[in-house]
Amino acid sequence: MANIYSKTLQDLEFPTVLQQVAARCNTELGKAVALEIVPLADEAKMENALGQTSEYLASFISENRIPNHGFDQINGELQLLKIENTTLELQGFRRMASICNTVTAHQKFFKKFKEYYPLLHDLAAELEPNTEIPVFINNVIDRFGEVKDNASDALLSIRRQMNHVRGKISQSFGSALATYNSSDYLDEIRESVVENRRVLAVKAMYRKKIKGSVMGTSKTGSIVYIEPEATLRYSRELNNLEFEEKEEVQRILNQLTNQIRPFRELLSDYQDYLSQIDVTAAKAKYAQDINALKPNLGTTRRLFLRDAYHPLLYLNNKRKNEKTYPQTIELHPENRIIVISGPNAGGKSITLKTIGLLQVMAQSGLLVPVHEGSEICFFDKILTDIGDNQSIENHLSTYSYRLKNMNQFLKRCNDRTLFLIDEFGTGSDPELGGALAEAFLEVFYERESYGVITTHYANLKALANELPHATNANMLFDGKTLEPTFQLILGQAGSSFTFEVAQKNGIPYSLINKAKKKIERGKVRFDATIAKLQKERSKMAQTGSRLQEEESKAREEAARLEKLNAKVKSKLENYQELYDHDQRMIQLGNKVNVAADKYFQNNKKRPLISELLRIVETENSKRKKRSANQAKAERTKKAQVAQEVQKVVKVIREKKKVQKKKAVVAEKNKPRPNFEVGDRVRMHDGKAVGSIDSLEKGKAIVNYGMFTTNVSVDQLELVEKKK
Q1: Looking at the domain covering 297-494, what would its CATH class be?
Q2: Contact 295/375 with Cβ under 8 angstroms?
């Protein structure tokens, strides 16, 4: 197991994922194994486990479906095989034969389709093939789970004798039944079965009249059940034979157990293999349900999760028909630490848990719900501090507990560690706790650890901005509605929207103003600037998305029109060829018609035949000429097309040059508006709108509220005249 502690797995809700995987197992042993899954010890094992699960997932849509792997566990039988002179039961042998047959079927299948399932083939090929065990068992036990008559000569002889005696019993009982029934000694039911023996149902008053052994009476006492004397002798003989049969069966099963005993280890391996296949199949079913796949395993230290979903949240929302928002995040040597900030309820903790849970799942051989372009790497240690860890038992406050946890982090973290900390530094005085958290973060950074933290502390945001290989991020909020969009944006710290949220929730504006005055003006302006930037980013993202959709539609329409144009052109060419052919046929028909008319007038065959031969020879000469000139015509046509294309391209280029020149001239000749102080303006290539504070010698000082700038009036365009 990798150096990942159970507390980390609990923090990331990994046991819940395992319960969902176990629920998809077919066997009880498979379920038990699934619940015990832990992160693997090294990268090679992780890659192998992910590969096996990915191959099994691919089999769901393949025509070559992997054979059934269901089995009944044989743990009890394996324990008994350890002990000398023990004998297994019939059902135990059948379970072992079934396991052997299933494994053999798997080995044959994977050998046949090795190129489709190379890793699963290697797993099955590790097992030693065995066909002896099913042969041993099938020689003794039939398909109904009974010992065969020919399992031994002695058993065959005993069972033949038993059948002979049963015949005698039936014969003697039938004779007694006929005799006593005619004497009217028997009840209406005539006979019954007691202790697996046929008995006469005798009226109680005639019990002394019949020789035999009383086997019981009816509830009312009106009927006495008697086994006839003749039948009784044969029944005793049958009892003796049944005892001999039981002893012989026990001897045969004991012998069979001794034959199977040397294969105990192999049978255990077979069962372990089928358990592993059951778990792999369950992982594949789980992957199918959460749209998971095998991410790329990079050689560099890079973790890139694109469109990543939290699997538990995804399945929960899927049941409720609600949308789940994916996250995209990247950690690499140039950007090792990400500090996520922003208001509460924006999805910071879910993003943190998504990263940690997907990493743990991947290192445990589980496929993860990400885009196929995602990439993961292997971490020796994954450290987490998520949730409220107040400990009543140990009398520790949240902050004391977290400090102890941080101490463990400092001891363990190195360049192959991933740390995930929620609400970093909270639990103490904001300034002092923030300073201590800053010191911790610097240590993590110096040790080149990878990590993601969430925080509200401004000093941690500032530190992330200063450190070259760390970056800020925020969960995007809609500035108007103050609703979270659940999108992670890298490269920018998040505003807490403290006053905006307070205002939205009905706090009086006068009270909010009073609070603003109590803190540094710079802090308010800084937070307001961040909030404004987030709003701008949100608008830009929406506009970009809309433009991208429009561009995609335009491309599709152009492609459709081009395809339609090609079809129309092809049809026109076909019609032209058809028209030319028809015209030629009409001309030929006219010539034949003229010859026929002459023959009708003069009735002379010789001129007719001569005229027809001339027509045919003329047509054949045209055919020869056409086939000879066809290749030349095609070459000429291609050259002409190429020349025409070059001419068209040249014309288009000339038109573009002319249009460009006209645009430049128009721009120069465009009358410049007369700007006045107070006019609202913006720069040609900008979106921000400001007002003119002063004008002097073709320069204007434009006030944007937060700052002013000095620009040339040529760079400005009028938005609104001063009122």
Answers
A1: alpha beta
A2: yes
Q: How far apart are CA 516 and CA 179, in angstroms?
A: 116
Query: Average pLDDT for consecutive 10-residue bins of the chain (723 residues)?
Result: 76 92 93 92 90 92 88 90 88 92 93 92 92 90 87 90 87 80 77 81 80 82 83 85 91 91 93 94 94 88 90 90 87 89 72 91 93 90 73 52 74 86 67 74 88 83 83 72 65 58 64 64 56 68 81 86 84 81 84 82 82 81 63 64 68 77 63 78 79 83 79 81 76
pTM: 0.65
Contact 442, 474 (CB under 8 A): no
Residue with tokens 């005892």: 243
* Domain extents in the chain: 14-149+259-293, 154-249, 297-494, 604-670, 680-720
Residue type, 640: Q
Q: Indicate the fold that domain 14-149+259-293 takes in CATH.
A: MutS, DNA mismatch repair protein; Chain A, domain 3 (1.10.1420)
Burial of 512 (0-12, 13-18, 19+ CB in 10 A): middle
What CA–CA distance (Å, rounded) separates 301 from 339?
Answer: 19
Give which of 205, 366, 342, 356 is closest to 282, Cα–Cα. 366
Contact 292, 311 (CB under 8 A): yes
Provide the strand spans (E) within 140-196: 186-194
Nearest Cα to Cα of residue 474 among 401, 391, 535, 523: 535
Secondary structure in 3-state letters for 216-257: EECCCCCEEEEEEHHHHHHHHHHHHHHHHHHHHHHHHHHHHH
Distance from C-alpha of 320 to C-alpha of 75, rounded to nearest angstrom: 41
| Sequence-distant (≥ 6) Cβ neighbours of residue 104 within 8 angstroms | 129, 130, 131, 134
